Amino acid sequence: MAQKMPESALKATNIDSRLSYLKRQFYALHEIKEKGSGFGWDDKQKMVTGDRAVFDEWVKDAKGLFRKPFTFYDSFEEIYAKDRATGVSATN
């Protein structure tokens, strides 16, 4: 990357770190959307709605996303949602 874009300060580790962070947030939001009781999902704005106190107790990896858009949600769902275990034999 340094050869192609020498003015960029990005390194592969920065990209990997950012992707890992976004994946953790996506998985937390996905779990809330699928299993969370007392939450809503605004599909137009791609954000969780509901009571803030309940939200803060429910999640750790997505605390900063209460009523804030996660614009990559649909793309991440298409790529990563199938990676999540489902069914009777799935464990947390």
Automatic annotation (TrEMBL):
For this protein, the record's InterPro entries field holds:
Myb/SANT-like_dom
* Domain of life according to the entry: Eukaryota
Q: Which Pfam families match?
A: Myb_DNA-bind_3 (PF12776)
Q: Where is the Myb/SANT-like domain?
A: 7-56
Name assigned to this protein? Myb/SANT-like domain-containing protein
Q: Which organism is it from?
A: Hevea brasiliensis (Para rubber tree)
